[in-house]
Amino acid sequence: MLSFSKIIFTALVFVVVWQGFKLFNRSKQVAADEQPKQTKDQSKTSKKANPVAHELEKCPDCGVYHAEGNAHRCDD
What we know:
Elements: H1 4-33, H2 40-49, E1 56-58, E2 65-67
Antiparallel strand pairs: 1-2
C-alpha cells in the first residue's frame, strides 16, 4: 500500500531528476554560447555558400524569364 513517505520519496526523486536534466541542458547551452564567433573571413565564405533568390520578369516578346533589372535581348 502507498504510504505518505513513499509518495514524498517518489516526488523528491522526480524533482531531483528534473532539476538534473535542467542543469545538464543549461550547461550544454552555455557551452554552445561560448563557441568562438565567426571572423570576417568566415562570414564572407558562409554568405557565398547560401544561395540568393532573384525576382524574375517575363519578357513580353519572347516569354523568357530573366533577372529583374538585367538587360535582355530576344533572339528571334
